[in-house]
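Support request, please re-run this one:
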Amino acid sequence: MGIGWNELKEDLSEYKTEEALRGKFYEIYGNEGNDISFKQLWSFLHEIKKGDLVFVKRGIKELVGFGEVTSDYYYDPRPSEYRHLRTATWLKKGSWAIPENMKTLPVKTLTELSDPERIKGLIALIEDQPDGETLDPVSDAGNIQYWWLNANPKIWDIVAAPIGSLQTYTSHNAQGNKRRIYQYFKQVQPGDVLFGYVASPMRQIVALCRVTKGLHETEEGEVFEFEKIEQFAQPVSLKDLQSAPELTKCEPLINNQGSLFKISPEEYEIIRNIIDEANELVVAGKSSVAPPYGLDECSEATGFAKEKLAYWIAAIERKKQAILYGPPGTGKTFLADHLARLIVSGTDGLIDCVQFHPAYSYEEFIQGIRPESDEKGNLQFDLKPGRFLEFCAQARLRKGPCVLIIDEINRANLARVFGELMYLLEYRDKGIPLAGGMRFSIPENVRIIGTMNTADRSIALVDFALRRRFAFLELSPEYDVLLTYQRSHNFNAEGLVRILRDINVTINDKNYHLGISFFLTDKLKEKMEEIWKMEIEPYLEEYFFSQPEAVAKYRWDKAKDLILS
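Re-run finished. Output below.
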């Protein structure tokens, strides 16, 4: 068994200390972003011992071999692929898919497994399925080839394709001409591994695929077939790969014009290492399951009846997106968070939040050109995904529902920020090209909960096209919730509720009513004067700016006796 980094053209056992080898490694490969790579090399040289068990993986969801290390490290300058070597006795070769209820394999090329239960589980997986799932036997693993496939985002969306889906690629273009380097298409064979690269404007490696059928004739012409086996939560850009000194001779990085490129096993390992390092933290959090959270807990935390909460959840599931709207202090953001926790409860789903504001743009939410400086200080302008595309990329890696909370959704120009999303929100099963050229669709497991403060902008002013795409869930001051909450904190809030009701009658516009969240705090009696003078009176002064007499009767000096009685 071998490991890469062939640019280190010498016997590395001569380096007795970690610092000595690190200096040589950084001299060849540079130190920026290479610390994880170095540690893997050091482990291969010095930490693996004879007699250790070794599992061989492909990606993070498949085992392809299992054996025992039988030698110390040695260097052989003759092989062109791997020169830093150890011998091993392979006990099993095949293909074993990691089941859904088992933790995925590490993303790094070389990782020490220290959990005895996990090791037992992997051995049991191999023993329980002695022939694997017969995906692609790897007894001739040395014959596997590695490829780089360019996907035109205007034609098909490799990002949106689910794991396990099959795709074909034609060896001739639309005009019937052979694609560039046609012989590569003839060389592709089942079991080969290829990187899925999204071409301009994204220019990123986004997925790993495995060839299932070599070149063959179909109704659409001569094609080869492949299966998507892994989606990268954090894609890696062409620019990042081109900056790696050990990839200076990598064919698709020299000239990316074409469809299919061949890469060497060593180049594959280097690229895979870069991808793994970029995805290490992302994938580490991927397998976490949201804690159970039921209607009883949510009702107790929010004060809303279980029936109403269930009704709202049903509306969100039916429409896939909803807006909680109401005047200030009705707990919209607080409730949105708790509804999201209900939705993802007990699943691998995720919750994220973004707040809109008047300057928020399409480029920030969907995608846009953003300037970045390279290592020489030169400005480069690349198309970057916005918050929503990044969220959807994370959602595609999960089976559970994923909830994006958009706080203050009506403070932005929604038609401008959403762009093509206006269409996709209504037609969830469709995909369309974005302004940047790539095709995009919203994953089925994505839910959106917006919050709208009607004191900032009435619901009547919301674009009718937008209103049709969301379920609107109205919130108003829930006085009983305030009474119950303060009763549990030994404060009688009946006088406060009476004056709040009176204020809201005087306001006479439900979009501007005073809510109760100002007063959902412990030790309210001690804090009441500050809350009233610093939050309630300024709000009333703003609303009754031309009616000072309306504010006068609600000043603290006049209201405190009623509130505290």
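DSSP finds 20 helices and 21 strands in the chain. The chain has a mean pLDDT of 87.
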